[in-house]
Task: structure prediction
Amino acid sequence: MADDKRDTSTMDKVWNFFTSLKLAITVLIIMAVASIFGTIIEQNQPIEKYRQVYEDWAYHLLDRLNMFDMYHSWWFLLLLVLFTINLACCTLDRLPRVLKVVRNPKTTLDENLEKTLGQVDRWKKKGSLDAWADKYAEAMGKTIGKPRVTKNGDAVHLYAEKGVVSRFGVYVTHTSIIIIFIGAIVGNVLGFKGFVNILEGQSIRQVSTPRGDRSIDLDFAVRCNKFTLTYYTDEHGHQTQQPKEYASDLSVLENGREVLRKKIVVNDPLQYKGIWFYQSSYGQAGAASAKVAIREPGGALVTGLSLFAGQPVEIPGYGRITGTDYQPNYQGLGPALLVTLEKAGQPPSQLWLLESRPDFDRQRKDRYYLSFGGLSQAFYTGLQVAKDPGVNVVWVGCTLMVIGLLIAFFMSHQRLWVRLSPSADGRVDVVLAGSASKNRLAFEKKFEKIQSDMKAVAI
Amino acid sequence: MHIVLLKVTALFYLVGALLYLHFIVTLREKGAKLGRMFLLIGVILHAVGFAARYAVAGYTPITNLFESLSFFAMAIVAVFLVTELRYHLRTLGAFIAPLGFGFSILAAFQPGEVVRLAPALNSYWLPIHVMLLFLGDAVFAVAFGAGIMYLLQEKEVKRKRLGAIFKRLPSLDVLDEINYRCLTVGFPLLTLGIITGSIWAEYAWGSYWSWDPKETWSLITWFLYAALLHGRLTVGWRGRKAAILAIVGFCAVLFTFLGVNLLLPGLHSYTSLSG
Result:
C-alpha cells in the first residue's frame, strides 16, 4: 500500500515536472542563452583556426563542451528532446480537459456560473415565457449562433457559442513544433547533404559530404554542359565587374542517356529523384585561351587557333603568332587581343585585334588576316547537393504553426447564455450572460449591442 | 537624390517627435494633432521614396544597410500611426517617433547609391521574407515604447505620486493591453518571417536551417517572445514582467538586425556590409 502510494506520487512528480510551464520557460531561456554562445564561437571551423584564436586551456574546455559544433552536441540535443517531451506532455495533459469542455458545454446558466461570468445583465418582460424564448433564440442566432434550448423545471435556458476552434489554436501550434522536429529527424536520418565540383563537359556519379570525409554514390550521372558567368553592363553597354548571374547548364544521365536538362542559377535548383542540385560556387579550370581565326582575304577560313598567353603557335607557310596581351576594353572599343606576328626574314610586328570588328586586320592586305573570336575559359561549377525526404514534413509543420498562431491569437471562443424563468409578479425574468476567451474589450462592446438588440425585441 | 529625400523625411519625423514631446509637456491637444500630421506626411514621403528607389533599382530596396534602416524607420512610424488610430494614445508618440527619426537619420548617413542586385538575393522571397520581419520588428518597437512607459508609470503609481508624469501617461491597464496586442501581431509576423526565410534558404542553399548567426539570433528572439507569451497566457505575468520582457525582446530584435551584421560572421552579412 505504502509503496503504491509513493510510486504514484513519484509518477505524479515526474508528470508534473514534464507538464510544468516552469520547465517550458526554463528550457526556452536556456536554449536562447546557449544559442548565443554558438553565434559568438564560430561553428565547424578547422581545428587550426580554433588553436590560433584560443589559449590551450580554453580550447580544451570548449572542445570538451562540444562548443565547436554546439548545435549538434549531445547536450543541445538533450535540451531539444526535453523541450519536445515538455510540449507533448503539456498537450496530453491539457487537451482532454479542453475536449471535455468543448464536447459538453454548460448549456444551462445556474447561479454559480453566473457569478463567474464577466458580462451579466437582467430585465423583466411581460408575456409568455415560451414566446420570449423563441424571440431571443432568433436574436442569438443572428449574432453568435443558433442556441441550444434546455428546459429545466420552469426555466428555459438558451446557450449559443462561436469560435470553439480557438481553444485548439495553442495545441495546433505545439503539435506543429513536434511535426517540424519529426521532419528534421527524418531528413537527418534518411537524407544527406553533399558537395561536388563538375568540370564543363564532364559528368559525375558521386558527391562528397560537406566535410569531405566520404563520398556518396548517386544512381545516375550529372553532366555540366556549360557554366556561364554573366556580368552587369554599365550605361554604355560595357561589362562591369559585378556578377549578375551564375548559371550551370546541367544534364541528368541515366545509362548514358540524357533524361533531364536544366539551366540552374542561384535560387533555382535542379531536382531529380528527390535529390536537389544548387548552384553554389564556381572556379576556373586551367588558364584562359584566346580564339583566333586565320582567314584568306576572301573570308574563307584557313584554320582556327586557341592561343594561350605567351605560347607561340606556328601557322604553316605563314609564320608564328603569340598572344601577348588582352584588354577587356581597348580604347573604348571593347575586348581586344594583342598578338605578335613573326614571319621569316621580317622583324616581328604587333597587332591589336578587336573582337567587335573581326575584319579589322584585313587592312594589312597580307596573304591571311587574323580575327579575334573572344577569350575562352574552362570553368568548373560547384554544386551543393541535398536529399531531404523530411522537408515536406517540415513545411506541413510550418503551415500548421502559422494556422495555429492565427487561431490562437485572432479567434475567440464566445459564449452566450439566456435564462428565462417565471417571476413572482407574473412577468418573465430574463438573465443574459456572456464570456469570451480572448479580446474581452471587443466582446464587451459586442455584448452591449446584443443586450440592447434583445431588449428592443417586441412580441 | 534618395539620400536628400530621406533627409527630408527624417526632418518630418524629427518635427513630429518634437511636437509629441511638446504635447507631453504642455498637454495641448493641438501639438499631438500637428505631430501626427508631420509623421503622416513623413511616412507618405518615405513611401514615395521607397517606390522611386524600387523603380530605379528594379528590385525591392531592402538589400543593404541604407535601405533596411530606412524601411525599418518607415515601418515603425506606420505601425505607430495605426496603433494611435486604434488606441488614441498620443503620448506613445513621444516614445516611438524618436525611434522613427533615429533609424531614418542613421540610414541617411549610409552609402545610399543604388547597387545592382547580387545573384543570391535575386528571388521573390526577398521582399516577402524581409518585409514580414521588419513589420514584426516595428510592432515590437511599439511594444518596447509601451514597456518603457509602463515602467515609468508604475514607478509613479508605486510612489503614490499621482502628479505630472502620472497624468500624462496612459493607465497601466491600457499599456499592458498594448503590450499583449503587439505580441499577438508581432509574434506571428516574426514566425512567418523566419518560415519564409527557411523556404528561401531551402531553394537557394538546399538547407532550411543552418544555424547561421542571423537565423540563430532570430530564433533567440522568437524564444524570448515565446517565453513572454507563455508567461502571460498561463502564469499570468502582467505588467512589470511583461514590460521588461518586451524591452529585452526588442533589444534582441535590434541585435538580430544590426549586431549580427556588424559583429558576427555568417551568410547574411552581405545584406549590410557589402552594400
User: Anything to note?
Assistant: Chain B has two domains: 1-115, 122-275. Chain B is about 80% helix and 0% strand. Confidence is low (pLDDT under 50) at residues 269-275 of chain B. The two ends of chain B are 17 Å apart (CA to CA).
